[in-house]
Amino acid sequence: MKTPIDSIVRVHSWKLDEAQQKLADLESLAIKLEQDIEKLDNEVLKEQDFASQHPDVAQTYPAYAEAARERRKRLETSIEEVMTLKAIAQQELHEIYQDLKKYEEAQANDIKRQQDVLKKKEQAAFDEMGMQQYRRRKASENN
């Protein structure tokens, strides 16, 4: 039998999955941004090496280097923002997890209460059957 607590647990499980996915997405984004910085640094080194070997191209290198520095700065800013969002997402995940555990415990208690009620009803039925058998036996002994 479905109870309201079952629905609450299901919703919070869904929220937990969603929060985990959000955190995973942010982690993936942070990794990608780190890789972009590494790739940019490698490109700058290649361009620097190329410019040092080709004096005719060396004139354009300072503009490229400045653009690369700006790009790196933007990537670093993005990483900081993602890390902030990641910390917030981790906190949200923790809170959702705590709520879910609380509701799961309430659900377990609800199930236990239902089982206890069922056991009491079964025991009452068995007691009634025992009493009826006892009465029949006494009645047949008296006749």
Short summary:
With 143 residues, the chain is mainly alpha-helical.
Total strand count, please? 0
Kindly, what is the distance between the CA atoms of the first and last residues, rounded to a whole number of angstroms?
A: 48 Å
**Mean pLDDT level:** 93
Q: Tell me the series of helices and strands, N- to C-terminal.
A: HHH
Give an overview of the whole structure.
Keywords: Coiled coil. This is Flagellar FliJ protein. Residues 9-106 form a coiled coil. The longest helix has 82 residues, at 61-142. The mean pLDDT is 93. The chain has helices spanning 4-53, 55-58, 61-142. Helix 1 packs antiparallel against helix 3 (61-142). It is rod-shaped and about 125 Å long. The chain has a domain at 4-103. It has 143 residues and is mainly α.
